[in-house]
Design a protein that fits this description.
Layout lengths: L9 E7 L2 H4 L10 H8 L3 H10 L3 E6 L9 H21 L4 E3 L1 E2 L5 H13 L6 E4 L13 H10 L3 E4 L5 H8 L15 H15 L2 H4 L5 E3 L6 H13 L8 H8 E4 L6 H11 L4 E2 L9 H10 L4 H16 L2
Parallel strand pairs: 1-2, 2-3, 4-5, 5-6, 6-7, 7-8, 8-9
Helix pairs in contact: 3-13, 4-5, 5-6
Length: 320
């Protein structure tokens, strides 16, 4: 746990795999045995590596693609069982773990009900959704019952990347995938896909309908803090009134440091959104813990601001 001479540290985009959910992915999703070992572990190995890096609490969520590629009949009972098993792991280590729910978004009403069950009965802190649901982006009005329930429960929804849809893969990336397969995922494809998701959420009017809705994006906001001014300016051209895109983004979104330990990028995010909107994350086990905490310790920030990022903002948002 936190030493007296350092801030308390909560990391909130930290992943695992549920064995039954992972069976639906196919065998190619985690070929690295060491990575798979860490994804499967919710005990001594994970806690030991948290201790080595000075991380006090992980908010654990299922890794991509979770239940977003499944049909409703499969996803509803599978998500419930997976959330129950994650709840047991959190109960076994309540001072070290918290949870984000997996949602069966193919059935939005069932997903809203599962969100409520996970928060009200299991003590989860919100939910994570991985990219489009069978090709349909989360802004689609069929999913708005989930937003309504999240607002009522006052918990955030985390939009996490997943691989781009096949049409985008073919048009943008296929020429380079043989030599640079990461281009489709963390190097660029994830960023574009998830930033588009965030833009669509704002343009959909969901935040007008649900003014208390709270969203989280990882990887320092998937480039949106850098682009928010230009998007806002362009959307305002020729419009009857100035765009509210930038204000809506800064009011309804929080962003995490997961897998993006860039000091210039972080400073841009702080200048655009304010330090109170930045949450510490590592993206474990896809990214190792020590570089994240080492980077935070060396940042040219006041202790007050560093403490906000490391845990204070998360405590307020997740009521921890």
């Amino acid at each position: 746990m936190a030493a007296k001479n350092r801030p308390f540290v909560i990391a909130l985009e930290e992943h695992y795999w549920d064995a039954d959910v992972a069976k639906t992915f196919g065998s190619g999703e985690a070929r690295d045995p060491a990575l798979r070992q860490r994804l499967d572990d919710l005990g001594a190995l994970r806690i030991g590596e948290m201790d080595e890096a000075g991380i006090d609490v992980q908010v654990i969520s299922h890794g991509a693609p979770s239940t977003q590629r499944l049909d409703a009949a499969t996803a509803v009972p599978l998500a419930k069982r997976a959330n129950d098993r994650l709840h047991e792991a959190v109960r076994a280590h309540p001072e070290r773990f918290a949870g984000f729910a997996a949602l069966p978004t193919a059935d939005p009403k069932a997903a809203a009900d599962e969100l409520e069950r996970a928060v009200a009965k299991l003590g989860f802190k919100g939910a994570m959704v991985h990219g489009p649901t069978n090709g349909v982006f989360f802004d689609d009005k069929r999913f708005w019952p989930i937003f309504e329930r999240a607002q009522a429960l006052d918990v955030p929804l985390y939009i996490h990347p997943s691989s781009p849809v096949q049409a985008v893969t073919d048009a943008y990336y296929k020429d380079y995938l043989k030599d640079f397969p990461q281009l489709l995922t963390a190097a660029w494809g994830y960023t574009v896909e998830t930033a588009t998701h965030g833009i669509r959420m704002i343009l959909s009017g969901a935040f007008d309908r649900y003014p208390g809705l709270k969203m989280i994006l990882g990887h320092l906001g998937e480039s949106l803090p850098f682009s928010a001014w230009r998007i806002n300016m362009a959307l305002s051209r020729g419009a009857d009134k100035p765009s509210a895109f930038r204000d809506t983004f800064c009011e309804h979104f929080w962003i995490t440091t997961s897998g993006n330990f860039s000091t210039p990028a972080l400073m841009c995010c702080i200048m655009e959104m304010g330090v109170d909107r930045i949450l510490f994350s590592v993206d474990y086990p896809f990214v190792p813990n020590p570089p994240g905490t080492k980077w935070m310790a060396d940042l040219p920030l006041s202790l007050e601001d560093r403490t906000k990022i490391l845990s204070g903002n998360t405590k307020r948002l997740l009521r921890m």
